[in-house]
Amino acid sequence: MFIAYIVVTLLTAAANLYAASNDFRRVAWVEANMDTLKIPRSRLSQLGILKTAGAIGLLFGIAVPVVGIAAAWGLIAFFVGAIAFTLRVHWYSHLPFPLIWLVLAIAALVLRVICR
């Protein structure tokens, strides 16, 4: 089970670092998404920081379980918020994307708690 935890944690951290790098680079499709979601583009750096902090927390959580648990909860809250914003603008075709990141964060949390 510990191997599954490591794999899921690394995958979740990598996915969030990838998403954060897109936020920091302000790629065109991310800016278009922000416009559709009615979120100011000026918030991209803050969103990138939150994703980066979550990813780093998950990685530190491999050695310090409480940090990994807190980071996973933070990412869960973040992506629940992303889902809420997606639902708010009725952009249902986009819903799978934050759902995938949410499922990864939940899996990282569950496996971290099991493997404590």
Q: How do the helices and strands line up, and which of them pair or pack?
A:
Blueprint: H1 2-25, H2 28-37, H3 44-60, H4 65-88, H5 96-114
Helix pairs in contact: 1-3, 1-5, 3-4, 4-5
Note down, in words, how this protein is organized.
The mean pLDDT is 97. It contains five helices and no strands. The protein has one domain. It is an all-alpha fold. Helix 1 packs antiparallel against helix 5. The radius of gyration is 14 Å and the shape is elongated.
Q: Level of helix content?
A: over 70%
What is the straight-line distance between the termini? 11 Å
Q: Give the overall pLDDT as a whole number.
A: 97
Q: How much strand content do the residues show?
A: under 5%
Question: How many structural domains can be distinguished in the coordinates?
Answer: 1
Oligomer: single chain
Q: Helical segment tally?
A: 5
| Rg calculated over all Cα atoms | 14 Å
For the biggest sheet, the summary is: none
Give helix and strand order, one letter per element, not per position.
HHHHH
Structural class: mainly alpha
Task: Sum this structure up briefly.
The chain is mostly helical and 116 residues long.
What features would you highlight for this structure?
single chain; 116 residues; mainly alpha; 5 helices; elongated
